[in-house]
Amino acid sequence: MLYKVEGIVIRTVDYGEGNKIIVIYTKEMGKQSIMARGAKKLKSRLSSITQLFTYAEYTYYKKGKMGTLNDGEAIRSFHDLNLDIFKSTYAAYLVELVDRMMDEHEGSSYIFEQLLASLEFIEEGKDPQIITHIFEMKMLELAGYSPVLIECIACGDQLGDSSFFSVTLGGTLCYKCKSKEQNVKKINIRSLKLLRLFQEMNIRRLGKINISDPIKNEVKLLMRDFMDTHVNINWKSRYVMDQINKTTSNHLEQKK
User: Fold this and answer.
1) Fold of 80-147+181-255
2) What contacts 113, CB < 8 A, 6 or more positions away?
3) How far apart are CA 101 and CA 139, in angstroms?
4) How far apart are the C-alpha atoms of 65 and 102, rounded to whole Å?
5) C-beta neighbour count of 166 within 10 angstroms
6) How confident is the model at residue 252, as a pLDDT?
7) Cα–Cα distance between 134 and 110 in angstroms, integer?
8) 76 with 107: CB under 8 angstroms?
9) Pairwise CA distance, residues 124 & 120, whole Å
10) What are 165's strand-pairing partners?
């Protein structure tokens, strides 16, 4: 059967001397694996539309589990994103989130649009860490692991100004319940408000956000701990992202 869909390339695998297998994420059909014959060759008409992050319209034939790419037309290539190693590592983490957390053929127009907006904003130079945390919240919600941030996860009472958090339980705790649990973290109230904002925000509406480094670091560590506890996936792209950030930080320290 012949299909014509819009999709974002979330994974590529070289196959043989000149071929590629690409995985695209679509609104209606979720993840689709497609063989792109000859796509590794520079002069191939399929080369440009089989690059990671590419948003294009794909025409492919599918009879069994894997389709065969016939043609396609790029809508946005994200060429600049691929040329910037710092930006591309964050983008790689976002597409890995979709690839590894979404079930096969599980489509979501909302996740598709949020992913596309995230890639666009990272390429345009908006803070990739903030975009990443917002998108992580979307994926956690889809997977049923969204953190409880408005009320006490233990007793259900409203929090007031309390800002205690249990990664293990999966949410915030009031003052009276925090003493009953182990591994409870006291977090800055500004960090908690930021997490609530991330949970509710549509990435398309993201404007300029000025956040101090201590708050950004606290949020990063909390999100990292939460993802590792509740999703428990060894993210390949996150390791690369950490190495790039470490190298960049060391370079900036040496210049001071």
Assistant:
1) de novo design (two linked rop proteins) (1.20.1440)
2) 204
3) 7
4) 17
5) 21
6) 46
7) 13
8) no
9) 6
10) 172, 185
Residue 16 burial (10 A CB sphere; 0-12, 13-18, 19+): exposed
Interval 194-240: pLDDT, tens = 999 999 999 999 988 889 999 999 999 999 999 999 998 999 898 88
pLDDT for 21-72, tens place per residue?
999 999 999 999 999 999 998 789 999 999 999 999 999 999 888 999 999 9
Pick the closest to residue 198 from 166, 226, 223, 176 (CA basis): 223
Residue 64 tokens read as 């069994």
Q: Does domain 2-79 have CATH number 2.40.50.140?
A: yes
DSSP labels, 182-203: SSEEE--HHHHHHHHHHHH--G
- 159 close to 150: Cβ distance less than 8 angstroms: yes
Percent of the chain with pLDDT over 90: 77
Structural domain boundaries in the chain: 2-79, 80-147+181-255
- Write phi, then psi, for 197 (nearest 5 degrees): -65, -45
Four-residue CA torsion sign, 95, 98, 100, 104: negative
Q: Considering only CA atoms, which of 225, 217, 105, 101 is closest in space to residue 115?
A: 101
Query: What are the Cα distances from residue 77, in Å, to 51, 155, 192, 203, 240?
Result: 8, 49, 36, 20, 22
Q: Return all residues near 130 (Cβ < 8 A) that are at least 6 apart.
A: 198, 206, 209, 211, 216
DSSP assignment string, 63-97: SSSSEEEEEEEEEE--HHHHH-HHHHHHHHHHHHH
Q: Is 12 helix (H, G, I), strand (E, B) or coil?
A: strand
